[in-house]
Amino acid sequence: MRLVGVRGVSKVFANGVEALADVSLDVRQGEFVSVLGPSGCGKSTLLRLIAGLTEPTAGTVEWSDETGKADLGFVFQEPTLMPWATAIANVALPLKLRGMAKSEREARAAEALGDVGLKGFERVWPRELSGGMKMRVSLARALVIQPKLLLMDEPFAALDEITRHRLNDDLLELWQQSGVTVVFVTHSVFESVFLSQRIVVMAARPGRVSAELAVTEPYPRSQGFRTSAEYAAWCRQASSRLGEAMAA
Amino acid sequence: MIKAKVIAPIVLGVLMLALWEGVVRAVAIPSYILPGPILVAKTLVADWGTLEPSLLVTVRITLEALAAAVVIGGLLAILFSLSRWVEQSLFPYAIILQVTPIVAIAPLIIVWANNVELSLLICAWLVAFFPILSNTILGLRSVDANLLDLFQLYGAGRWRTLVDLRLPAALPYFLGGLRISGGLALIGAVVAEFVAGTGGNASGLAWRILESGYQLKIPRMFAALVLISATGIVIYLVLSWLSHLLLRRWHESALDGEN
Q1: Cβ–Cβ of B168/A127 closer than 8 Å?
Q2: In the predicted model, what is the mean pLDDT of residues A208-220?
Q3: pLDDT of amino acid B258
Q4: A43 CB near a chain B CB, below 8 Å?
Q5: Min CA distance, B211 vs chain A (Å)?
Q6: Is A64 part of any domain?
Q7: Is A12 part of a structural domain of the chain?
Q8: What is the pLDDT of residue B166?
Q9: Is A187 an 8 Å CB contact of chain B?
Q10: Which of A23, A131, A185, B220 has its CA 20 to 30 A from that of B243?
Protein backbone atom coordinates (compact mmCIF):
# COMPACT_ATOMS: atom_id res chain seq x y z
CA MET A 1 0.00 0.00 0.00
CA ARG A 2 1.28 3.41 -0.93
CA LEU A 3 2.04 5.76 1.94
CA VAL A 4 3.15 8.82 0.01
CA GLY A 5 3.54 9.52 -3.68
CA VAL A 6 5.67 12.16 -5.34
CA ARG A 7 3.99 13.05 -8.63
CA GLY A 8 5.94 14.80 -11.39
CA VAL A 9 7.59 17.15 -8.97
CA SER A 10 9.91 19.91 -10.13
CA LYS A 11 11.71 22.39 -7.97
CA VAL A 12 13.41 25.54 -9.19
CA PHE A 13 15.11 27.65 -6.54
CA ALA A 14 14.83 31.42 -6.40
CA ASN A 15 18.36 31.70 -7.86
CA GLY A 16 17.21 29.79 -10.97
CA VAL A 17 18.89 26.49 -10.11
CA GLU A 18 16.75 23.55 -11.19
CA ALA A 19 17.07 21.11 -8.28
CA LEU A 20 14.49 18.57 -9.38
CA ALA A 21 12.90 17.93 -12.77
CA ASP A 22 9.77 15.81 -13.07
CA VAL A 23 10.50 13.41 -10.24
CA SER A 24 8.00 10.69 -9.40
CA LEU A 25 8.39 8.25 -6.56
CA ASP A 26 6.04 6.02 -4.64
CA VAL A 27 6.88 5.12 -1.07
CA ARG A 28 5.07 2.02 0.13
CA GLN A 29 3.90 1.43 3.66
CA GLY A 30 6.58 -0.19 5.78
CA GLU A 31 9.32 -0.34 3.20
CA PHE A 32 12.93 0.76 3.48
CA VAL A 33 13.88 2.73 0.42
CA SER A 34 17.18 4.45 -0.24
CA VAL A 35 17.71 7.43 -2.50
CA LEU A 36 21.22 7.15 -3.91
CA GLY A 37 22.92 9.84 -5.93
CA PRO A 38 25.87 12.18 -6.29
CA SER A 39 25.89 15.43 -4.37
CA GLY A 40 23.79 18.09 -6.02
CA CYS A 41 21.24 15.66 -7.44
CA GLY A 42 18.45 17.08 -5.26
CA LYS A 43 18.17 14.15 -2.83
CA SER A 44 17.87 16.44 0.16
CA THR A 45 15.43 18.70 -1.66
CA LEU A 46 13.28 15.65 -2.38
CA LEU A 47 13.19 14.79 1.33
CA ARG A 48 12.31 18.36 2.26
CA LEU A 49 9.49 18.31 -0.29
CA ILE A 50 8.08 15.09 1.18
CA ALA A 51 8.34 16.61 4.67
CA GLY A 52 6.53 19.72 3.51
CA LEU A 53 9.44 21.94 4.47
CA THR A 54 9.51 23.35 0.96
CA GLU A 55 6.89 23.58 -1.76
CA PRO A 56 7.32 22.10 -5.25
CA THR A 57 7.43 24.44 -8.25
CA ALA A 58 5.34 21.92 -10.17
CA GLY A 59 3.77 18.57 -9.35
CA THR A 60 2.33 17.30 -6.06
CA VAL A 61 3.14 15.24 -3.02
CA GLU A 62 0.17 13.01 -2.25
CA TRP A 63 -0.44 11.27 1.04
CA SER A 64 -2.77 8.32 0.99
CA ASP A 65 -3.57 9.09 4.60
CA GLU A 66 -3.44 12.69 5.78
CA THR A 67 -2.36 11.72 9.29
CA GLY A 68 0.83 10.30 7.79
CA LYS A 69 1.93 13.80 7.03
CA ALA A 70 1.64 14.76 10.66
CA ASP A 71 3.50 11.68 11.89
CA LEU A 72 6.86 12.37 10.39
CA GLY A 73 10.35 11.87 11.73
CA PHE A 74 13.29 13.70 10.21
CA VAL A 75 16.97 13.00 10.80
CA PHE A 76 19.43 15.49 9.40
CA GLN A 77 23.01 15.02 8.29
CA GLU A 78 24.17 16.64 11.53
CA PRO A 79 22.71 15.55 14.86
CA THR A 80 21.08 19.01 15.14
CA LEU A 81 20.59 18.84 18.90
CA MET A 82 19.86 21.83 21.06
CA PRO A 83 23.13 22.28 23.00
CA TRP A 84 21.31 23.92 25.91
CA ALA A 85 19.12 20.89 26.56
CA THR A 86 19.92 17.45 27.96
CA ALA A 87 19.55 14.33 25.85
CA ILE A 88 16.11 13.61 27.22
CA ALA A 89 14.89 17.17 26.66
CA ASN A 90 16.15 17.01 23.09
CA VAL A 91 14.33 13.76 22.46
CA ALA A 92 11.16 15.08 24.11
CA LEU A 93 11.13 18.22 21.94
CA PRO A 94 8.63 17.01 19.29
CA LEU A 95 6.25 15.95 22.07
CA LYS A 96 6.70 19.28 23.84
CA LEU A 97 5.91 21.17 20.65
CA ARG A 98 2.76 19.10 20.39
CA GLY A 99 1.75 20.13 23.87
CA MET A 100 2.23 16.87 25.75
CA ALA A 101 2.59 17.12 29.53
CA LYS A 102 6.11 17.01 30.90
CA SER A 103 5.94 13.75 32.86
CA GLU A 104 4.42 11.86 29.97
CA ARG A 105 6.82 13.18 27.36
CA GLU A 106 9.82 12.46 29.54
CA ALA A 107 8.68 8.89 30.05
CA ARG A 108 8.29 8.45 26.31
CA ALA A 109 11.62 10.13 25.60
CA ALA A 110 13.40 7.88 28.10
CA GLU A 111 11.89 4.89 26.35
CA ALA A 112 13.04 6.17 22.95
CA LEU A 113 16.55 6.72 24.30
CA GLY A 114 16.53 3.15 25.54
CA ASP A 115 15.47 1.94 22.09
CA VAL A 116 18.55 3.51 20.49
CA GLY A 117 20.86 2.07 23.14
CA LEU A 118 21.28 5.17 25.29
CA LYS A 119 19.62 4.08 28.49
CA GLY A 120 21.21 5.95 31.38
CA PHE A 121 22.21 8.93 29.22
CA GLU A 122 19.02 10.91 29.89
CA ARG A 123 20.63 13.78 31.79
CA VAL A 124 23.77 14.04 29.67
CA TRP A 125 24.47 17.22 27.69
CA PRO A 126 25.05 16.97 23.94
CA ARG A 127 28.63 18.19 24.21
CA GLU A 128 29.46 15.24 26.43
CA LEU A 129 28.34 12.76 23.75
CA SER A 130 30.39 11.31 20.89
CA GLY A 131 29.34 11.86 17.28
CA GLY A 132 27.68 8.47 17.07
CA MET A 133 25.82 8.96 20.33
CA LYS A 134 24.58 12.37 19.23
CA MET A 135 23.23 10.76 16.10
CA ARG A 136 21.48 8.15 18.24
CA VAL A 137 19.82 10.95 20.24
CA SER A 138 18.78 12.53 16.97
CA LEU A 139 17.31 9.20 15.87
CA ALA A 140 15.48 8.81 19.17
CA ARG A 141 14.01 12.28 18.73
CA ALA A 142 12.71 11.30 15.29
CA LEU A 143 11.23 8.05 16.59
CA VAL A 144 9.70 9.39 19.81
CA ILE A 145 6.47 10.40 18.10
CA GLN A 146 6.21 6.89 16.61
CA PRO A 147 6.18 8.24 13.06
CA LYS A 148 4.64 6.50 10.08
CA LEU A 149 7.46 7.80 7.92
CA LEU A 150 11.07 8.36 8.83
CA LEU A 151 13.04 10.65 6.52
CA MET A 152 16.81 10.44 6.86
CA ASP A 153 19.15 12.82 5.07
CA GLU A 154 22.62 11.23 4.92
CA PRO A 155 22.47 10.80 8.68
CA PHE A 156 25.66 8.77 9.11
CA ALA A 157 27.82 10.40 6.43
CA ALA A 158 29.99 12.27 8.92
CA LEU A 159 30.68 9.26 11.14
CA ASP A 160 33.59 6.84 11.06
CA GLU A 161 33.03 3.49 9.40
CA ILE A 162 32.85 1.38 12.55
CA THR A 163 30.25 3.68 14.11
CA ARG A 164 28.36 3.84 10.83
CA HIS A 165 28.14 0.07 10.56
CA ARG A 166 26.87 -0.24 14.08
CA LEU A 167 24.24 2.45 13.49
CA ASN A 168 23.21 0.74 10.25
CA ASP A 169 22.68 -2.52 12.14
CA ASP A 170 20.69 -0.83 14.87
CA LEU A 171 18.63 1.17 12.38
CA LEU A 172 17.59 -2.04 10.59
CA GLU A 173 16.64 -3.61 13.89
CA LEU A 174 14.54 -0.57 14.86
CA TRP A 175 12.92 -0.58 11.44
CA GLN A 176 11.96 -4.24 11.72
CA GLN A 177 10.62 -3.84 15.24
CA SER A 178 8.59 -0.70 14.65
CA GLY A 179 7.35 -1.21 11.11
CA VAL A 180 8.09 2.42 10.28
CA THR A 181 8.57 3.38 6.64
CA VAL A 182 12.05 4.74 5.92
CA VAL A 183 13.29 6.97 3.12
CA PHE A 184 17.06 7.06 3.48
CA VAL A 185 19.14 9.49 1.44
CA THR A 186 22.77 8.54 0.96
CA HIS A 187 25.67 8.87 -1.43
CA SER A 188 27.12 5.54 -0.30
CA VAL A 189 26.45 2.54 -2.54
CA PHE A 190 27.45 0.15 0.26
CA GLU A 191 25.15 1.72 2.80
CA SER A 192 22.18 1.78 0.43
CA VAL A 193 22.65 -1.90 -0.48
CA PHE A 194 23.07 -3.03 3.09
CA LEU A 195 20.00 -1.19 4.35
CA SER A 196 17.32 -1.08 1.75
CA GLN A 197 14.76 -3.17 -0.06
CA ARG A 198 14.75 -0.73 -2.92
CA ILE A 199 17.29 1.79 -4.20
CA VAL A 200 16.21 4.81 -6.21
CA VAL A 201 19.19 6.11 -8.15
CA MET A 202 19.18 9.81 -8.99
CA ALA A 203 21.12 11.82 -11.55
CA ALA A 204 22.14 15.44 -11.16
CA ARG A 205 21.64 18.72 -13.04
CA PRO A 206 18.74 18.66 -13.02
CA GLY A 207 17.92 16.16 -10.28
CA ARG A 208 15.86 13.28 -11.65
CA VAL A 209 15.23 9.59 -11.03
CA SER A 210 17.52 7.61 -13.28
CA ALA A 211 17.06 3.99 -12.19
CA GLU A 212 15.51 1.74 -9.58
CA LEU A 213 16.96 -1.40 -8.10
CA ALA A 214 15.19 -3.90 -5.87
CA VAL A 215 17.56 -5.49 -3.37
CA THR A 216 15.75 -8.78 -2.82
CA GLU A 217 18.01 -9.96 -0.04
CA PRO A 218 16.14 -11.22 3.04
CA TYR A 219 16.31 -9.63 6.51
CA PRO A 220 17.74 -9.70 9.09
CA ARG A 221 20.92 -8.75 7.32
CA SER A 222 23.76 -9.70 9.58
CA GLN A 223 27.41 -8.80 9.78
CA GLY A 224 28.03 -11.80 7.55
CA PHE A 225 26.04 -10.23 4.73
CA ARG A 226 28.51 -7.34 4.62
CA THR A 227 31.35 -9.63 3.58
CA SER A 228 29.33 -12.01 1.41
CA ALA A 229 29.66 -12.48 -2.35
CA GLU A 230 25.97 -11.58 -2.73
CA TYR A 231 26.54 -8.24 -1.05
CA ALA A 232 29.45 -7.54 -3.40
CA ALA A 233 27.30 -8.45 -6.38
CA TRP A 234 24.50 -6.10 -5.26
CA CYS A 235 27.03 -3.34 -4.72
CA ARG A 236 28.44 -3.88 -8.20
CA GLN A 237 24.94 -3.58 -9.66
CA ALA A 238 24.12 -0.46 -7.69
CA SER A 239 27.49 1.04 -8.59
CA SER A 240 26.96 0.54 -12.28
CA ARG A 241 23.48 2.14 -12.05
CA LEU A 242 25.03 5.07 -10.24
CA GLY A 243 27.78 5.21 -12.87
CA GLU A 244 25.15 5.34 -15.63
CA ALA A 245 23.29 8.04 -13.74
CA MET A 246 26.40 10.17 -13.45
CA ALA A 247 27.34 9.67 -17.10
CA ALA A 248 23.87 10.56 -18.35
CA MET B 1 46.56 26.45 37.02
CA ILE B 2 43.97 28.74 38.59
CA LYS B 3 46.50 29.76 41.21
CA ALA B 4 49.02 30.96 38.64
CA LYS B 5 46.23 32.79 36.84
CA VAL B 6 45.34 34.70 40.00
CA ILE B 7 48.77 35.12 41.56
CA ALA B 8 50.69 36.34 38.51
CA PRO B 9 48.71 39.57 37.97
CA ILE B 10 48.61 40.23 41.74
CA VAL B 11 52.39 39.92 42.03
CA LEU B 12 52.84 42.18 39.02
CA GLY B 13 50.41 44.72 40.50
CA VAL B 14 52.16 44.78 43.87
CA LEU B 15 55.53 45.20 42.17
CA MET B 16 54.26 48.11 40.07
CA LEU B 17 52.77 49.82 43.14
CA ALA B 18 56.04 49.38 45.02
CA LEU B 19 57.99 50.79 42.10
CA TRP B 20 55.59 53.74 41.88
CA GLU B 21 55.90 54.45 45.62
CA GLY B 22 59.67 54.08 45.42
CA VAL B 23 60.04 56.48 42.49
CA VAL B 24 57.72 59.07 44.09
CA ARG B 25 59.83 58.97 47.28
CA ALA B 26 63.25 58.77 45.62
CA VAL B 27 62.64 61.68 43.23
CA ALA B 28 60.50 63.52 45.81
CA ILE B 29 57.66 64.19 43.37
CA PRO B 30 55.21 66.61 45.01
CA SER B 31 51.83 65.05 45.78
CA TYR B 32 49.98 67.64 43.65
CA ILE B 33 51.81 66.21 40.59
CA LEU B 34 51.84 62.50 41.40
CA PRO B 35 50.85 61.12 44.80
CA GLY B 36 52.22 57.71 45.79
CA PRO B 37 49.85 54.77 46.21
CA ILE B 38 50.10 54.90 50.02
CA LEU B 39 48.95 58.52 50.07
CA VAL B 40 46.14 57.66 47.63
CA ALA B 41 45.04 54.85 49.94
CA LYS B 42 45.14 57.16 52.96
CA THR B 43 43.13 59.78 51.10
CA LEU B 44 40.62 57.15 50.12
CA VAL B 45 40.06 56.37 53.78
CA ALA B 46 40.20 59.98 54.99
CA ASP B 47 37.84 61.32 52.29
CA TRP B 48 35.50 58.31 52.38
CA GLY B 49 32.75 60.52 53.78
CA THR B 50 32.78 62.58 50.56
CA LEU B 51 33.65 59.81 48.15
CA GLU B 52 31.17 57.18 49.28
CA PRO B 53 27.97 59.10 48.40
CA SER B 54 29.50 59.94 45.02
CA LEU B 55 30.41 56.31 44.44
CA LEU B 56 26.84 55.30 45.23
CA VAL B 57 25.49 57.88 42.78
CA THR B 58 27.75 56.66 39.99
CA VAL B 59 27.03 52.99 40.71
CA ARG B 60 23.30 53.66 40.84
CA ILE B 61 23.25 55.49 37.51
CA THR B 62 25.43 52.80 35.93
CA LEU B 63 23.24 49.95 37.09
CA GLU B 64 20.02 51.73 36.16
CA ALA B 65 21.41 52.47 32.72
CA LEU B 66 22.53 48.88 32.32
CA ALA B 67 19.13 47.57 33.39
CA ALA B 68 17.43 49.91 30.91
CA ALA B 69 19.87 48.76 28.21
CA VAL B 70 19.06 45.12 28.91
CA VAL B 71 15.30 45.66 28.83
CA ILE B 72 15.11 48.05 25.90
CA GLY B 73 18.00 46.53 23.92
CA GLY B 74 16.70 43.01 24.47
CA LEU B 75 13.09 43.83 23.61
CA LEU B 76 14.10 45.79 20.51
CA ALA B 77 16.25 42.85 19.39
CA ILE B 78 13.31 40.47 19.76
CA LEU B 79 11.06 42.91 17.92
CA PHE B 80 13.64 43.27 15.13
CA SER B 81 14.05 39.52 14.85
CA LEU B 82 10.30 39.04 14.51
CA SER B 83 9.98 41.53 11.71
CA ARG B 84 12.54 42.35 9.03
CA TRP B 85 10.42 45.34 8.23
CA VAL B 86 10.70 46.87 11.67
CA GLU B 87 14.41 46.14 11.77
CA GLN B 88 15.12 47.71 8.42
CA SER B 89 13.20 50.83 9.41
CA LEU B 90 14.68 51.28 12.86
CA PHE B 91 18.17 49.81 12.81
CA PRO B 92 19.81 52.72 10.91
CA TYR B 93 18.64 55.07 13.67
CA ALA B 94 20.06 52.79 16.34
CA ILE B 95 23.38 53.03 14.48
CA ILE B 96 23.16 56.82 14.28
CA LEU B 97 22.64 56.95 18.04
CA GLN B 98 25.60 54.65 18.50
CA VAL B 99 28.10 56.47 16.27
CA THR B 100 27.30 59.97 17.54
CA PRO B 101 29.78 60.75 20.34
CA ILE B 102 27.98 60.91 23.65
CA VAL B 103 29.82 64.10 24.67
CA ALA B 104 28.31 65.77 21.60
CA ILE B 105 24.70 64.88 22.45
CA ALA B 106 25.01 65.12 26.23
CA PRO B 107 24.47 68.92 26.45
CA LEU B 108 21.29 68.58 24.42
CA ILE B 109 20.03 65.75 26.59
CA ILE B 110 20.80 67.77 29.72
CA VAL B 111 18.75 70.68 28.37
CA TRP B 112 15.85 68.46 27.38
CA ALA B 113 15.75 66.21 30.42
CA ASN B 114 15.95 69.19 32.76
CA ASN B 115 17.05 66.87 35.56
CA VAL B 116 20.69 66.00 36.11
CA GLU B 117 20.25 62.42 37.23
CA LEU B 118 17.78 61.61 34.48
CA SER B 119 20.02 63.09 31.82
CA LEU B 120 23.04 61.15 33.13
CA LEU B 121 20.92 58.02 33.01
CA ILE B 122 19.86 58.67 29.43
CA CYS B 123 23.46 59.29 28.36
CA ALA B 124 24.75 56.13 30.01
CA TRP B 125 21.90 54.13 28.52
CA LEU B 126 22.61 55.50 25.04
CA VAL B 127 26.18 54.28 25.25
CA ALA B 128 25.29 50.94 26.79
CA PHE B 129 22.31 49.67 24.84
CA PHE B 130 23.83 49.16 21.41
CA PRO B 131 26.11 46.15 22.12
CA ILE B 132 23.17 44.37 23.72
CA LEU B 133 20.91 45.20 20.80
CA SER B 134 23.32 44.18 18.05
CA ASN B 135 24.63 41.08 19.81
CA THR B 136 21.16 39.84 20.67
CA ILE B 137 19.95 40.38 17.11
CA LEU B 138 22.95 38.40 15.88
CA GLY B 139 22.18 35.63 18.37
CA LEU B 140 18.48 35.46 17.49
CA ARG B 141 19.52 35.06 13.86
CA SER B 142 22.25 32.50 14.51
CA VAL B 143 19.84 29.64 14.92
CA ASP B 144 20.61 26.28 13.36
CA ALA B 145 18.56 26.16 10.14
CA ASN B 146 17.84 22.46 10.66
CA LEU B 147 16.46 23.13 14.13
CA LEU B 148 14.20 25.78 12.62
CA ASP B 149 13.01 23.16 10.12
CA LEU B 150 12.37 20.77 12.96
CA PHE B 151 10.28 23.33 14.83
CA GLN B 152 8.32 23.98 11.65
CA LEU B 153 7.89 20.25 11.07
CA TYR B 154 6.32 19.79 14.48
CA GLY B 155 4.05 22.75 14.06
CA ALA B 156 5.70 25.21 16.45
CA GLY B 157 4.38 28.74 16.06
CA ARG B 158 6.42 31.93 16.18
CA TRP B 159 6.08 32.30 19.91
CA ARG B 160 7.15 28.70 20.70
CA THR B 161 10.08 29.03 18.31
CA LEU B 162 11.11 32.27 19.97
CA VAL B 163 10.92 30.94 23.51
CA ASP B 164 12.28 27.42 22.99
CA LEU B 165 14.74 28.01 20.19
CA ARG B 166 15.71 31.59 19.39
CA LEU B 167 16.10 32.89 22.94
CA PRO B 168 18.30 30.04 24.22
CA ALA B 169 20.39 30.21 21.03
CA ALA B 170 20.82 33.97 21.53
CA LEU B 171 21.76 33.74 25.21
CA PRO B 172 25.57 33.47 24.75
CA TYR B 173 25.52 36.42 22.33
CA PHE B 174 23.35 38.46 24.69
CA LEU B 175 25.70 37.76 27.59
CA GLY B 176 28.68 38.79 25.47
CA GLY B 177 26.91 42.07 24.71
CA LEU B 178 26.00 42.49 28.36
CA ARG B 179 29.66 42.30 29.42
CA ILE B 180 30.58 45.03 26.96
CA SER B 181 27.59 47.13 27.98
CA GLY B 182 28.45 46.86 31.68
CA GLY B 183 31.71 48.70 31.09
CA LEU B 184 30.12 51.13 28.65
CA ALA B 185 27.33 52.05 31.07
CA LEU B 186 29.96 53.12 33.60
CA ILE B 187 31.89 55.07 30.97
CA GLY B 188 28.65 56.71 29.83
CA ALA B 189 27.71 57.67 33.38
CA VAL B 190 31.15 59.20 34.04
CA VAL B 191 31.50 61.00 30.70
CA ALA B 192 28.01 62.44 30.95
CA GLU B 193 28.73 63.80 34.38
CA PHE B 194 31.86 65.49 33.12
CA VAL B 195 29.72 67.24 30.54
CA ALA B 196 26.89 68.02 32.95
CA GLY B 197 29.43 69.16 35.51
CA THR B 198 26.91 69.85 38.24
CA GLY B 199 27.75 69.90 41.92
CA GLY B 200 25.29 69.59 44.75
CA ASN B 201 24.14 66.55 46.65
CA ALA B 202 23.66 64.07 43.86
CA SER B 203 27.13 64.34 42.34
CA GLY B 204 29.00 61.27 41.24
CA LEU B 205 32.67 60.36 41.06
CA ALA B 206 33.26 62.32 37.85
CA TRP B 207 32.27 65.49 39.67
CA ARG B 208 34.66 64.61 42.51
CA ILE B 209 37.47 64.35 39.96
CA LEU B 210 36.62 67.71 38.42
CA GLU B 211 36.32 69.29 41.85
CA SER B 212 39.64 67.82 43.01
CA GLY B 213 41.24 69.18 39.86
CA TYR B 214 39.98 72.70 40.58
CA GLN B 215 41.20 72.46 44.16
CA LEU B 216 44.47 70.77 43.20
CA LYS B 217 43.61 67.86 45.53
CA ILE B 218 45.38 65.38 43.30
CA PRO B 219 45.43 62.49 45.84
CA ARG B 220 41.65 62.70 46.08
CA MET B 221 41.45 62.73 42.29
CA PHE B 222 43.42 59.49 42.27
CA ALA B 223 41.21 58.03 44.98
CA ALA B 224 38.09 58.77 42.89
CA LEU B 225 39.80 57.26 39.88
CA VAL B 226 40.57 54.10 41.83
CA LEU B 227 36.92 53.83 42.81
CA ILE B 228 35.78 54.18 39.18
CA SER B 229 38.21 51.49 38.05
CA ALA B 230 37.21 49.22 40.92
CA THR B 231 33.55 49.68 40.02
CA GLY B 232 34.28 48.73 36.42
CA ILE B 233 36.23 45.66 37.48
CA VAL B 234 33.50 44.50 39.85
CA ILE B 235 30.85 44.95 37.16
CA TYR B 236 32.96 42.95 34.72
CA LEU B 237 33.60 40.16 37.22
CA VAL B 238 29.96 39.90 38.24
CA LEU B 239 28.78 39.77 34.63
CA SER B 240 31.46 37.21 33.71
CA TRP B 241 30.41 35.09 36.64
CA LEU B 242 26.76 35.37 35.64
CA SER B 243 27.66 34.39 32.11
CA HIS B 244 29.65 31.41 33.31
CA LEU B 245 26.82 30.34 35.57
CA LEU B 246 24.28 30.39 32.76
CA LEU B 247 26.44 28.79 30.08
CA ARG B 248 28.74 26.39 31.88
CA ARG B 249 26.59 23.34 31.22
CA TRP B 250 26.43 23.62 27.49
CA HIS B 251 28.28 26.41 25.75
CA GLU B 252 31.79 26.06 24.32
CA SER B 253 32.85 29.43 25.73
CA ALA B 254 32.32 28.22 29.29
CA LEU B 255 34.07 24.89 28.97
CA ASP B 256 36.88 23.99 31.32
CA GLY B 257 40.21 23.13 29.83
CA GLU B 258 39.68 19.41 30.34
CA ASN B 259 37.68 18.71 27.21
Answers
A1: no
A2: 92
A3: 43
A4: no
A5: 50
A6: yes
A7: no
A8: 95
A9: no
A10: A131
